Amino acid sequence: VRLNDENIDRGNWTNKREYMLSMIGYAVVLGNVWRFPYLAYKNGGGAFLIPYFIMLIVAGIPLFFLESSFGQFCSQGPVNVWRALPIFQGVGVTMVLVSTLVAIYYNVIIAYSLYYMFASFQSPLPWSDCFYWSNSNCSLTPRGTLCNVTRASNWSVPVLTANMTLWENGTCPEGNISIPVQSPSEQYWDLVALQRFSSLDETGPVVWHLALCLLLGWLLIAAALYKGIKSSGKVVYFTSTFPYVVLLILLIRGVTLEGARDGIEFYIGSQSNLAKLCEAEVWRDAAIHIFYSLSIAWGGVTALSSYNKFHNNVFKDALIVCLTNCGTSVFAGFAIFSILGHMAHVYGKPVSEVCVCVGFGLAFIAYPDALSKLPISPLWSILFFFMLLTLGLDSQFAGIEVISTCLQDAFPENFKSKNSIVYVAPCAILFLLGLPCVTQAGIYWVTLIDQFCAGFVLLIAALLELIGVFYIYGGNRFIKDIEMMIGTRSSLFWLWWRACWFFISPAIIIVILVWSLLTFSPPSYGTVQYPAWGVALGWCMIAFCLIWIPLIAVWKIHTSQGNPWQRLCAVCSPVESWGPYLEVHHGERYADGRRYYRKNSVHLQDNNVYIIPNNLTRL
Prior knowledge:
Layout: H1 16-27, H2 30-34, H3 36-42, H4 49-74, H5 89-119, E1 131-134, E2 139-142, H6 166-169, E3 177-178, H7 184-193, H8 208-224, H9 229-239, H10 242-255, H11 260-268, H12 280-293, H13 300-305, H14 314-347, H15 351-354, H16 360-371, H17 377-410, H18 412-415, H19 419-434, H20 442-453, H21 456-486, H22 491-518, E4 524-525, E5 528-529, H23 532-546, H24 548-559, H25 564-571, E6 600-605, E7 608-613
Antiparallel strand pairs: 1-2, 1-3, 4-5, 6-7
Helix pairs in contact: 1-9, 1-14, 1-17, 4-12, 4-14, 4-21, 4-22, 5-8, 5-17, 5-19, 5-20, 5-21, 5-24, 7-16, 8-19, 9-17, 10-14, 10-17, 11-14, 14-16, 17-19, 20-23, 21-22, 24-25
């Protein structure tokens, strides 16, 4: 904590730049690079931008503005902000649990990026050629010539099975087993990087090169967060800006390649299909991507905003971050599809046939394959995977910040003086929890957590957040809280935000939630279907995250005093400690409230007690 911080107790961002870069780094995630381009060409190319930006305006920005205002007003994390409405405190706990589960598998993706980056330090790139099973040394060996990448209509992904692995039974299969109907990059992903087994039922041993990369990923995060926002705020100067440098380099290189125009036209040019706008699924995809790409209802927006100074213009910040996030998605699409267009030219195929995958497939199969066709391919590959690494690290910084902020807010007397422990310990625990995700069935666990935890739970949490703040706490009260920070605004200014917060945004979330439930299909990885117990486990993860909402609500009512109606009214009203963290910001609206935090902050240092007035900024 610096003596020139406004909030000496919790600390503030060193300057506005560090906050903005951290927030942009948190919002701009891997999905901006590998999911948005896929959704664009799937849903009509440039036509998809229309529903995308409409959903940004009516749902994305309003919810982002809500969460950042909520955290900044009371200088608390996603759990303690619900002192405004104790019966909904379980919503904050749900957000923390989701962030924890997502952090487990998200760092596995960082491990994939690290592995591919290290593998790129060789020429030719190792996924340039096909592999076959060699009986002579019982290993996968490069064929040396490019294999046939034409897929049969009934193709299936060949994967390692127990009788093909030396470490399972100590013997090799007889003869040389060719691996058919896969491109070299697919073979490398399945057979070398993942060493993937055929289903979730076969766990297999830990893939040690991935485990070491996972450990390295967590060490990088722990080192960056060792001093909390004071250290991570310095790291984001690089990690938040470097991806834009790489995207620009890849775009400039991509548009100079043969076939690049075909890729760009497929993405957002003459092949745009405006008729797609009549399909409801296009609007659903746009809304879902907005929610996930802005990291709404994850708790990170509230946690990062809680370290702002009270009178920071949170409205302007929300607009800048949201527009930057969506602009990055569009910009990344040009960089991705210019090079995929070149790959289509090399193969003599339409772009739609070389980019048939989404998510991991685009990032670790299609794009590496495209990069391997470029001159000086190791250089472009290193840059690309280093970019994925920095994108992932930025998101993880905020994910761990959610956990650490909630611990420090809940137990200030235990953790305020142990800043390094509260950041490093979660990293160590989450590394151990992530080891099942780097076994030979690890990709199935990653996909399972992603499809369940990052879906229904976030939609329900966002809906309850809107209902709690605007229908129970009070929309007018919340608007007055915001005006205490940014100044009074006209009623016309608030008309739009009222419409979104009270009606439009909740309606969109309800439609998406109901539609997702009605159209739910069991998760799969490619052609591999999950066993019944795996699907049941996914629903159990959802239940585990959501069960705290009713449990904490019941507990709050039970511990209140009075008759049932009085207890219900008590837990639906702010507690006495609710309001701006510092007394100097209470104003007339909170002047009479009895504060949980005293006017003077008490700090322990060298076994001595120092009383530091809150209005002291310099010695």
